[in-house]
Write a structure and sequence with these properties.
Two copies of one chain form a homodimer.
Chain A lengths: L9 E5 L3 H13 L4 E5 L12 H5 L14 H8 L2 E3 L2 E7 L4 E6 L4 E5 L2 E4 L3 E3 L12 E2 L4 H14 L3 E5 L3 H12 L3 E5 L11 H13 L3 E3 L4 E5 L13 E4 L4 E3 L2 E4 L3 E3 L2 H5 L4 E2 L2 E2 L13 E3 L5 E3 L6 E3 L3 H15 L13 E5 L2 E6 L3 H7 L5 E6 L14 E8 L5 E8 L3 H13 L4 H6 L14 H14 L4 E2 L6 H5 L1 E5 L3 H5 L7 E2 L2 H4 L11 E5 L4 H12 L4 E4 L2 H7 L8
Parallel strand pairs in A: 1-2, 1-7, 2-3, 7-20, 9-16, 10-11, 10-16, 11-12, 28-32, 29-30, 29-31, 31-32
Antiparallel strand pairs in A: 4-5, 5-6, 8-17, 13-14, 14-15, 18-19, 21-22, 23-24, 24-27, 25-26, 26-27
Helix pairs in contact in A: 1-8
Protein name (chains A, B): FAD/NAD(P)-binding domain-containing protein
């Protein structure tokens, strides 16, 4: 146990938040004798940066709640030397020293045996004219948040334009909306929350608009117009000018368009860097220098589903990488397994969860995996128990072997649970056939005897076994739709509220008696509301000799997913 | 696809709820031509019996909500012949016929090619004197529930004694309490919810009592005293007399002490039966007769963790077994994988979840698995996000190989998610080392960067790797406790609110400076509130040469788990 070497190991950490602090704590647990120093550029260490968007709007009421540790408490507990407000400005790899500079002091140097880079990522500031105006902010650190709060308080800002509809942008939008501000979101892409598919994002768009937040999609920012005379008046003349000519007002403007690994220090030191960050081996050692480790947002990682390199700015992986680097330094046989990109986000009343790549991304980047997917809309728990709400779950898998490739879920409740179950299944290399067998906890307030995860497994397995053939709404061009006779097996009441263009109504319970009405020479596209009755209709028609496909996800996938062109 | 044989297959199903209806629906999807008949003794088919306790007290407001399907709707949709209120009274295996009797009619017989027994289980009625009184009820079927409701309405019953503190007993107690009735629970064992350990049940006891429900543990029922003159008067003289002499009042008395497989029919037909139900192979075929399948509560299943036979009365497995039997009949290569016993229950404000055997059960029945466990108390989501509540998670694993053997969790929220993740991990044959790596979804409203499942994995792996040695409160007899110098590394404020008998206070942040105060010759038992600071203390002391163990689960495990004898 512990470190028995005569001269204690010098461990130097650059960056004192998730990955860096996890490293330091683990290193101390493994060795009482090591010298551990953490340099942090900012004034705080070990804070909860994932809470920043919530503290911004007072959902987390006390900013102090985010500051989990202080330099003194860390020193007392872990005997780690914290140098906050101190920047490491150079690495001398040959002499194994770092040069650092505390605010207002001369630069000094410190020796290391092992150097851990955990600098995280910078909020990206795109070269937009006007983006340096005093009412334009990024939102990544506690000082960022404090600056926004001070500005809003001092100028009585009443509106905000949030540029960027990712995780942080959406959380910040909700948080500032909760403060009573008029919020607009400006997103460059056709949908918010870029890691998911368009059809999964559509209900998020509806929820954002339902909460009276203005949403601008496909919106190219031309410039930020924050006239000096407007500064401090909150008079509403400050705005984001879109290329369309539209003006999106914002007394303050948030620039939350993603992050970029902080690679300057590593680059100057000559470490190998890709466009995803510092390149490391599975022990998180720089491929250039084994005495330098890189962890967290600044390190390139491998997606363990697609085996493609990626940059992943998530706290969980950062923490685990920091811990693993410490284990490796102290002689443990450890390897990082890559990431699957498990994430979840709450946006007003909707939750969206994701693991693995989106279908769009699988098709474009990993066609070699032979991706397919199915869509189900089960309730979050037994429909007969009060408060049940629907989920939409897209499950991606490989047609070749049934391996699960990813999942996207939206709904009001129970999203995080199913994403975590599917993330576990993916990491265990389960197939969709395994999901059929999966025994999950059932009581009416929590789930169903056939859990949504089982349902998705049943449908996917049915597809792979050839028990059903499906077609996705996104593949239904008008030309393809015209090749089918379209049969709606729902009830007349459901049909009356909207149907697929050209559909004829033949309620499932009457279908066996109405086969004579169908054209035996023409392919049948059968559908219901969510897919199950369509599947039953498929089984009847198929066994009666028809050529038939079932519409994946049913009419709900069409109407909710933004496929308005398909609606009759 | 489908059944192409000249004479259609005759499929006869006995029992029309979970397993039987799942069989029938799947069989029809696989074959339009098969003849499918379902005999159901009761008046309803395809109903949600898991909802009965909730409908009893009006949490589910409409009884009709439980009746998911009617004979007519099933006939229309699945072309399945439903014979409700009809009992199958004999099986003639030689001639492959069943004899059945509809209420008020002559017995008839029907031919089968394959017979599916899905009769479920009967509520057990122990031979207690007085248990046939008109105010004594079981609670398993819709008629049971209707009878209780009618009685309560007609007699203005104001109190209930629930005999049995399992799943159904607890759900019924809560449900009747919600109606405003005075509720008492009478449990034979030292704790309610028998599948979990005593220390996990203790917070449930506290929650039950906090809700003004009387709880009688270790309570042997002598007799039920329901005097004729008391019937219908609701005068409070009806009661359960315990062997202790105590009288537990109940205008009505619920007898919910478990279920017994309905094996009479199968036994008479000469099928192999164990004390867990009808014995089947992995295709759910009777080991005696391959043309007879048994599914659901009446079939013996194998626990896939312990490989021991068991009877499991849960809806999810019943449904999957029914589906699997149909798959097998239609030529699919399928095998049932056994069960892990994943379950969850809501009791007032507490949720309790379970997968695999309890520690008690592992020690007594599966010592060959070399079981060990760890206890953690993490919050359900980021502590700094509003509304965080603590979980208690016991993770069982094999000391031999780190295989996960089970988990028990209690808490106010997030229990079902972690149980499902761990159930998935177990079914994927993951080890506790895999839990360290598991990438789960994190955003402050949903979890933590280190999820409770990761935390349990870290602690268990630390134990297996020898990075920490632990001792459980249940193993701390007074004699064993006396062998240690007990060091409490919490704050003085925490110490003042209660401590382990004989403990000395040495707050963690001061521990390094106070090593001189300790006796180097005597083993140290270190502890904190939940275990993490104790682990840090362990690491410091161990590396400084002390013999030391950390108290698993900390002082919280002692105080919450009912180990009052250990408190100083």
């Amino acid at each position: 146990m512990g470190d028995q070497s005569p001269s204690p190991l010098n461990l130097v950490v650059v960056g004192g938040v998730a990955g860096g602090m996890s490293f330091a704590a683990r290193a101390r647990r493994l060795s009482e004798s090591a010298s551990i120093t953490v340099f942090e550029k900012g004034p705080f260490v070990g804070y909860a940066n994932c809470g920043i968007p919530y503290a911004l709007g007072g959902i987390i009421q006390s900013d102090e709640a985010l500051i989990l540790q202080t330099p003194d408490s860390i020193k007392a507990r872990y005997n780690v030397d914290i140098r906050h407000s101190t920047e490491v400005i150079a690495i001398d790899r040959e002499n194994k020293t770092v040069e650092y500079k505390t605010q207002g002091q001369e630069a000094k140097s410190m020796k290391y045996d092992k150097l851990i880079l955990a600098q995280g990522a910078d909020a990206f500031r795109p070269p937009i004219s006007g983006s340096n105006a005093p009412n334009v902010f990024t939102l990544q650190t506690i000082p960022d948040m404090t600056a926004i709060k001070s500005y809003v308080a001092a100028h009585c800002s009443k509106s905000v334009a949030v540029i960027g509809g990712g995780f942080i942008g959406l959380e910040a939008a909700e948080s500032l909306h909760a403060l009573g501000m008029k919020v607009s979101i400006v997103e460059y892409m056709p949908h918010v929350f870029p890691p998911v598919d368009q059809d999964i994002a559509e209900p998020i768009h509806a929820e954002i608009r339902r909460n009276n937040v203005d949403l601008h999609l496909n919106a190219r920012v031309k410039e930020i117009v924050a006239p000096i005379e407007a500064e401090g008046t909150g008079n509403g003349s400050s705005h984001v000018l879109l290329e369309s000519g539209e003006k999106v007002p914002g007394d303050i403007i948030l620039l939350v368009v993603g992050v970029r690994p902080r690679i300057t220090l590593a680059k100057t030191a000559g470490l190998e860097i890709s466009r995803f960050g510092i390149v490391t081996n599975a022990q998180m050692q720089s491929t250039t220098d084994p005495d330098i480790y890189a962890v967290g947002d600044m390190a390139e990682t491998t997606n363990s589903i697609t085996l493609l390199p990626q940059n992943l700015a998530l706290a969980g992986p950062a923490n685990r990488q920091g811990r693993l680097a410490a284990d490796h330094i102290f002689g443990r046989d450890v390897s990082y397994r890559g990431n699957v990109g498990t994430s979840v986000c709450q946006i007003f009343g909707i939750n969206v969860g994701l693991v693995g790549p989106s279908i769009t991304s699988l098709h474009s980047q990993s066609p070699n995996l032979d991706p397919e997917y199915v869509t189900v809309h089960p309730p979050n728990h037994a429909a007969y128990y009060p408060g049940a709400t629907p989920l939409t779950l897209k499950l991606a898998f490989s047609k070749r072997n049934g391996n699960i490739l990813g999942a996207q879920i939206i709904g009001k409740a129970g999203v995080d649970k199913r994403i975590d179950v599917l993330a576990t299944a993916i990491q265990a290399r389960m197939t969709v056939y395994d999901l059929e067998h999966l025994e999950l906890a059932y009581a009416p307030p929590f789930g169903s005897a056939k859990d949504p995860v089982n349902m998705a497994g049943f449908v996917a397995s049915n597809v792979l076994r050839g028990d059903t053939e499906i077609i996705h709404p996104e593949d239904l061009t008008p030309e393809i739709l015209d090749q089918y006779q379209v049969i709606d097996v729902r009830s007349p009441g459901e049909f009356a509220r909207g149907y697929v263009r050209g559909a004829k109504l033949a309620p499932l319970n009457e279908l066996r008696g109405r086969l004579g009405d169908l054209d035996r020479e023409k392919k049948v596209l059968v559908y219901c509301q969510v897919g199950y009755r369509g599947y039953l209709g498929y089984r009847i028609l198929k066994q009666e000799g028809f050529k038939v496909v079932n519409l994946d996800g049913g009419f709900k996938a069409v109407s909710q997913g933004g496929f308005g062109l398909l609606v009759g």
